[in-house]
Amino acid sequence: MKPIQVGLLGIGTVGSGVFNVLQRNQDEISRRAGRGIQITMVADLDVERAKSVVGADIQVVNDARAIIANPDIDIVIELIGGYGIAKALVLEAIAAGKHVVTANKALLAVHGTEIFAAASAKGVMVAFEAAVAGGIPIIKALREGLTANRIQWIAGIINGTTNFILSEMRSKGLDFDVVLKEAQRLGYAEADPTFDIEGVDAAHKVTLMSAIAFGIPVQFDKAYVEGITQLGAADIKYAEQLGYRIKLLGITKRADKGIELRVHPSLVPSKRLIANVEGAMNAVVVQGDAVGTTLYYGKGAGSEPTASAVIADLVDIARLHTADPEHRVPHLAFQPNTLADAMGSLPVLPMSEVVTSYYLRLRVADQAGVLAKVTGLLAEAGISIDAVLQREADEVGGEGSTQTDLIILTHDTREGTMNDAIAQMQQLPTVLAPITRIRKEELN
After folding, report:
1. Pick the CATH number of 4-135+304-340 from 3.40.50.720, 3.40.710.10, 3.90.1750.10, 3.30.420.10
2. CATH annotation of 355-440
3. Is 29 exposed, middle or buried (0-12, 13-18, 19+ CB in 10 A)?
4. Cα 91 to Cα 212: distance, rounded to the nearest angstrom
5. How does DSSP classify residue 153?
6. Which regions of the chain carry the CATH code 3.30.360.10?
7. What b/e string do you get for 35-62 counting C-beta neighbours within 10 Å, with b at 16 or more?
8. Cα distance between residue 250 and residue 77, in whole Å
9. DSSP letter at 291?
10. Is 218 exposed, middle or buried, given 0-12, 13-18 or 19+ CB atoms closer than 10 A?
11. pLDDT score recorded for residue 394
12. Is 423 within 8 Å of 441 (Cβ atoms)?
């Protein structure tokens, strides 16, 4: 059978990896796909650099639309990134009847509903394994491997930059700002790390996993997003003393009234496997009713790990290229006409309705009765306390200090209830600084 022809838009870090792995493992990949898969055309603004990667035999252009207009190209790989030109090119490729493979989580999390609808109408596939957790095949696991299950929840470390920063803060006792500079120096963090450290990148990824797990449209605008910029070394230390580690988690969960969709720092019990994922590695835990708990671990970024996922998508398309579109795996696992939100049955819940447990740290005056007042307010709000840790004043502020830290772990309560209780505690004259609140996830 004639090889399937692929056009590559963007040959940076991931694009180079795709080209190199495809060349290196061509025989193996062809045996699996049932036909050859060849990149025959590359578009990149830096034509000379692109030619130095792919050699003289591959056509290199500086206009991505030349690839879309080429009738011999069957699949377009989009590795440009962002929401702008990438969206236009993906929609144009679909309109031209070409399948699309993309690693662009931001594009799909924000515009996925429009893109998947256009692909379905045209009878082409949009594959995006590389958009979530790099080389870990989590999309395929959720969409196919766990298809018998009613998924109950997903919790993932899905941003390597923030996990590296938190690992360094914990192991070296350093504050966020110091470790961020080191992460930038080592190349783990971008010059502008906002998307990573503010949780946006993780929210894009968990939005896609949520849609596949629960059969709802992608709804990034409804995700709750909180990053790691406010975390201090003291909280990481206290968490450790209480048997927890702090991780930035992307969480999506089936609740009584709808779906939780949130990204924020979380205390996770140290004994959980995911709590021990260190450095720039990624991990995703999925809880299904039939299978129980499953864990997926690996490199969440990098040239060849991400290329591994891109090429897996190419192989899937090569196998299904001639199949009736109705017999292919749906983009979001569920048949498009059955997506739950279209029927109003599974709304994404506002954060105030989420139920979880909490870590609270209060800087308080070191005097009698403070603990009683704080716990009294929590009791009035119906919030049950799991554990209390009160530091000696000289431990916190040095010898002769009149301030101390009060750390409280709570049982599950509604976020809105906790917000009201924190507002009341903050008004106490003996509470001397803004209260630190970090959510706690037992992941049972």
Report:
1. 3.40.50.720
2. 3.30.70.260
3. buried
4. 21
5. E
6. 138-299
7. bbbbbbbbbbeeeeebbebbeeebbbbe
8. 27
9. T
10. buried
11. 57
12. no
Residue 338 confidence (pLDDT): 72
pLDDT at 325: 73
Alpha-carbon torsion 431, 433, 434, 438, what sign?
A: negative
What stretches in the chain show pLDDT beneath 50? none
Q: Which CATH architecture describes the domain 138-299?
A: 2-Layer Sandwich (3.30)
Cα radius of gyration rounded to whole Å, the chain: 24
Catalytic site includes residue 98: no
Q: What is the pLDDT of residues 331-388, one digit of tens each?
A: 776 777 777 665 567 899 999 999 999 999 999 998 889 999 999 999 999 999 999 9
Closest C-alpha to 7, from 74, 54, 79: 74
- Active-site option among 205, 247, 253, 440: 205
Query: What distance in Å separates the CA atoms of residue 416 and residue 267, rounded to the nearest whole number?
Result: 19
Helix, strand, or coil (residue 362)? strand
Question: Which residues in the chain are classed under CATH 3.40.50.720?
Answer: 4-135+304-340
Residues of the chain with CATH 3.30.70.260: 355-440
| pLDDT score for 35 | 93
| Residues 6+ positions from 427 with CB-CB distance below 8 Å | none
Helix, strand or coil, per DSSP, at residue 356? strand
Q: Where are the beta strands (DSSP E) in 79-167?
A: 99-102, 126-127, 151-157
Report the candidate in 352, 356, 374 with the shortest Cα–Cα distance to residue 424: 374
Q: Going by C-beta distance under 8 Å and a sequence separation of 6 or more, which residues neighbour residue 186?
A: none
pLDDT the model gives residue 340? 64
Whole-angstrom Cα distance, residue 259 to residue 216?
A: 9
